[in-house]
Structures are given as structure tokens and as C-alpha cells.
Amino acid sequence: MKANEEQEAPEFFEKVVFINRCAKVVKGGRRFSFSALVVVGDQKGNVGVGFGKAKEVPESIRKGTERAHGNMTNISLKGDTIPHEVKGKYDGGKVLLRPASQGTGVIAGGGVRAVLEACGIKNVLSKSMGSNNHLAIVGATMDALKQLRTEESIKSLRNA
Fold it and tell me: CA geometry: angle at 136 spanning 54 and 58, to 5°?
């Protein structure tokens, strides 16, 4: 029975993008709390982002992972790249994603790379513009990926 449970549970790619330590000054000294930005994906087109806050690092990562699983979205892919060029915006972060030919790899940094790897995209070019904030960049990447449409979906919308 245990072997069946392991086969049914899909394997997820989890990546902690950023951990922030926040200090609150109180009478006895400083109280620290932590926030974690986590990206989760099945590397087959589903990806989610979660932000967890807690008094300890492992607890904040666990909360972020749970929220990321709850925020999973399906992304339209074309093989192992994206169907077309797209720009995403979130707060001050702006991200440009371009499809790339076979063998190019993921040309991206930090939060953008984490989201693209979790999604299962293998060949893409990206440029991060605007803010350097991890949350803004990851949000902008998610916004860009949600805008993607395949050729078949556009044709079906035009025919309807």
C-alpha cells in the first residue's frame, strides 16, 4: 500500500528564492522573525509561488511551500520553451521573456530562473528590469507566464 501512495504523489520541484530576517526592537532587546519566498512546480507546466512568515526559518519555509501548492497555475508551453515573447509587471518589477532555440538553456537569474525551472521551461531568454526586489521579480515572472497562449488556444478563440 505504501508503494502505491509514493507512485500517486507527484514529485515537485521546490526552491527557496529568498529568506528575509526582520527585527523588532522590544524592551529586552531584539525579536527576530523570518519570511520566506518559495517557488514550487511539477516541471510539466504547473507552477506556484508562496510567501510564508514565522518566528523560525523552517516554519516560514513550510508555510511558504503550503501557500505555493495552493497557488499552483497551469502555464501554456511549446515543447520545452514558451510560445511567444511576453512582458510581465508586478509592483516595480518588470520581466521580459523570449523563446529560445533548442540547446540555449535558461538564461535568467535569481527569482526568474527559479520560476522557469519549476515550470519546466528549458530554453528561454529573460531580462529583469525595474526593481531588484525578489518578490516583485517573481511576481512579474508569474504575470508574464500567465499571459502565454498557445497557437491552438488563439485559433479556438478566434473561431468561437
Answer: 20
Q: What are phi and psi of 105, to 5 degrees?
A: 90, -175
Q: What is the pTM of this model?
A: 0.88
Q: What pLDDT sits at residue 10?
A: 66
In 9-150, which residue ranges form alpha helices assigned H by DSSP?
57-70, 110-119, 134-146
**Topology annotation, domain 2-73:** Double Stranded RNA Binding Domain (3.30.160)
Of 2.30.29.170, 3.30.230.10, 1.10.3720.10, 3.10.180.10, which CATH number belongs to 74-150? 3.30.230.10
Q: What is the pLDDT of residues 6-45, one digit of tens each?
A: 444 568 999 999 999 999 999 999 999 999 999 999 999 9
CA distances for 4 relative to 13, 28, 41, 43, 69, angstroms: 21, 52, 22, 22, 22
